[in-house]
Design goal:
It contains 19 helices and 22 strands. It is of the alpha/beta class. It has four domains: 224 residues, Thiamin diphosphate (ThDP)-binding fold, Pyr/PP domains (Rossmann fold, 3-Layer(aba) Sandwich); 101 residues, 3-Layer(aba) Sandwich (Rossmann fold); 169 residues, 3-Layer(aba) Sandwich (Rossmann fold), CATH 3.40.50; 75 residues, no CATH class. The chain has a seven-stranded mixed β-sheet, sandwiched between helices. Strands 14-15-16-18-17 form a five-stranded parallel β-sheet, with helices on both faces. The chain has a four-stranded mixed β-sheet with strand order 9-11-10-13, sandwiched between helices. 48% of the residues are buried. The N terminus and C terminus are likely disordered. It binds thiamine diphosphate.
């Protein structure tokens, strides 16, 4: 399946050279090291995950996988209050989770430099929505810096710490997928020293009760004015003159390079310090071009601000609001504006890439679970975010809802309480992964037990954050540095959250009949129940492979039942339509197993009626047990 990210070894992340070919994420990590950051915290999420994985390679920085983004921001805030430099990284939706702390921290500001790196998944390559994190700067009165490549990711992160301390303000560094993952040459600057000032008691600033918070608002307003003046003069906002002034561009982030590629001769005002925007600089720039176009990825933020400042601009009226604004997107739009013909003149012809829809991994323990869920009747299934969201797709089509991390339980509770006549006899089930449960799902379970809900929870504990590349979490009992630490006991946790001990079961998801029976029994019982599945993610060291299987062509009847498991190691070799004795047509699908990919998990043998799936090598049948946890 398509993973949100990848796990990086610590050794891989430490590169001592000062001139390197690295990604934006790695550049941010190195900038944190060179800025003498003391604490870095994050919760994984594409496209920002690798930042902390790289930071973990620098033992001089305390780094942690926090259980969610709010916690990671609060850890960073605490470190800043202690007078140290702190970094917090997250994907765009993480800011929604962190926003409660974030929106008040702006009143406190920063003591030690506090930098929040937010990575927007422009084009939704791996996210539940597309959001523009630049809004948070406007909402919380904070500066936003927007690098355009890996070198700038390094430089701007360094600049962000300086800015943060100069104006005592948390600073947002907004990245996008393209900046995070694309590599470029990065030259490091000399590392700076930073003295931790120590925690200074100052309740009027650090204790945000109404009386104190009111006093901080005028300070924030004064800070706004100072930041605005700083942006007007800042050398992160640069004008690049051009020979063709028919159209000029204001742009930021990855879109800057797209503009340069599509219109190399046009004047460009590149905003690195994009909020507060340097309105007067932009006004002066607008006088130098015939038409002014704002090329900004996702929302028309700057465009709206410029219109309010009475500066005539084009923007989302001519370019799309969704996805990346690449040269093939912007060039025809601008040509159209200028009344010129011409499609995108691409120098490198577009490659036809074979479509690869996301799917679960070979032998993933979720496969058997979804096989069961796709066969369970009369049940509304609230889904959540993780590898198991793929259960919404082919061949399982098992999920009825999916919104945000942790929502499955509370949504299920709402479905239970809000059900109408037609749903009275339906069962309500929530499916959630271990990391997602710890991130934001636990509260939903407490809500269900406290408010006497009738929901069955299927907690898929694979001891890893599978979706983002198999990172550790409190469920793995191993921390970001790879050290052993406390491992959460889900049974005890669910009990503590109010589930009766007899309503908590632990099941091996490779034992499909047992799982199916447990599901059928628990959904019928009219009180909260939890089924915990307990086999590890196949991408982790905990998973042990078994000898592969193959299809015995002489026995395969083409029933296609094995395909319903959804394992990508099974592929159809031939389809045939036959007429059944009752005269109806039946589609047959003859299959093969990719033995190089197969890990012998045995799931596909369960629905195979003719026992046509057999060991690929000459091994005895008792070696064909289920995959087991080795550690
Ligand atoms: C608020 C938010 N933070 C982070 C993510 C990125 N993300 C998607 S699913 C997921 C966790 C998946 O782990 P788990 O629940 O254990 O399920 P698994 O993928 O292992 O099956 C994460 C971190 C996100 N989508 N939303």
């Amino acid at each position: 399946m398509r993973r949100e990210g990848s796990k990086l070894s610590i050794a891989e992340s430490v590169l001592p050279e000062t001139r390197q070919f690295i990604s934006g994420n790695m550049a941010v990590a190195q900038a944190a090291r060179d800025a003498n950051v003391k604490v870095a915290a994050a919760y994984p999420g594409t496209p920002s995950t690798e930042i902390l994985e790289y930071v973990a390679g620098f033992p001089e920085i305390y780094s942690e996988w926090s259980i969610n983004e709010k916690v990671s921001l609060e850890v960073a805030i605490g470190a800043s209050m202690a007078g140290s430099r702190a970094l917090c990284a997250m994907k765009h939706v993480g800011m929604n989770v962190a926003s409660d702390a974030f929106m008040t921290q702006t009143l406190i500001g920063a003591v030690g430099g506090l930098v929040i790196v937010v990575a927007d998944d422009v084009g939704l390559s791996s996210s539940q929505n597309e959001q523009d994190s630049r809004y948070w700067g406007r909402f919380a009165h904070l500066p936003v810096l927007e690098p355009s490549d890996a070198q700038e990711a390094y430089d701007f992160t360094r600049a962000a710490f300086a800015l943060s301390e100069q104006y005592e303000v948390p600073v947002i560094v907004r990245l996008t997928t393209r900046i995070c993952h694309v590599k470029g040459v990065v030259v490091n600057k000399e590392a700076e020293s930073h003295e931790t000032r120590g925690f200074v008691k100052d309740p009027s600033r650090l204790v945000m009760v109404p009386g104190n918070a009111k006093g901080r608002i005028p300070k924030m307003m004064a800070r706004d004015l100072a930041l605005k003046a700083c942006s007007e003069e800042n050398d992160l906002n640069i004008i690049e003159s051009g020979t063709d002034t028919e159209v000029g561009f204001i742009t930021s982030g990855a879109a800057y390079f797209h503009v340069k590629e599509a219109f190399p001769d046009a004047p460009v005002l590149k905003l690195g310090f994009s909020h507060p925007a340097p309105i007067e600089k932009i006004r002066a720039f607008s006088q130098t071009v015939e038409k002014l176009v704002v090329i900004e990825e996702v929302e028309p933020l700057l465009e709206t601000e410029l219109r309010a400042a009475n500066i005539e601009v084009y923007g989302k009226d001519i370019v799309p609001k969704i996805g990346e604004l690449s040269p093939p997107v912007i060039q025809p739009a601008i040509n159209n504006l200028l009344g010129k013909a011409g499609e995108y003149n691409n120098i490198i012809p577009a490659q036809n890439i074979f479509p690869r829809p996301p799917t679960m991994c070979v032998a993933c323990p979720h496969l058997g679970i979804y096989y069961c869920l796709s066969h369970i009747k009369n049940t509304i299934i609230a889904g959540d975010i993780g590898c198991y969201t793929l259960g919404a797709g082919h061949p399982w089509n098992a999920l009825d809802t999916c919104i945000s991390m942790g929502a499955s339980l509370s949504v299920a509770q709402g479905i239970d309480k809000g059900r109408g006549e037609s749903d009275q006899n339906k069962n309500v089930l929530a499916v959630i992964g271990d990391s997602t449960f710890l991130h934001m799902g636990m509260q939903g379970l407490l809500d269900i037990t406290y408010n006497k809900g009738n929901v069955t929870i299927l907690l898929l504990d694979n001891r890893a954050v599978g979706m983002t590349g198999g990172q550790n979490a409190p469920s793995s009992g191993i921390n970001l540095q790879g050290q052993e630490t406390s491992q959460v006991d889900f049974r005890k946790l669910c009990e503590a959250l109010g589930v009766k001990p007899e309503r908590i079961r632990e099941v091996n998801p490779y034992e499909m009949p047992t799982l199916f029976k447990a599901l059928r029994e628990e959904v019928k019982i009219k009180e909260p129940s939890v089924i915990i599945t307990n086999q590890p993610c196949v991408l982790t060291e905990r998973y042990s492979k078994l000898p592969p299987l193959k299809v015995d062509d002489d026995k395969c009847t083409g029933c296609g039942n094995c395909l319903d498991v959804g394992c990508p190691a099974i592929t159809v070799t031939r389809r045939e339509t036959v007429i059944k004795p009752n005269g109806k047509e039946k589609e047959l699908a003859f299959v093969q197993i990719d033995t190089a990919a197969c890990t012998g998990c045995d799931l596909c043998t369960k629905p195979c009626a003719p026992d046509a799936i057999i060991p690929a090598r000459n091994i005895s049948c008792d070696q064909l047990t289920n995959a087991v946890e080795v550690k």
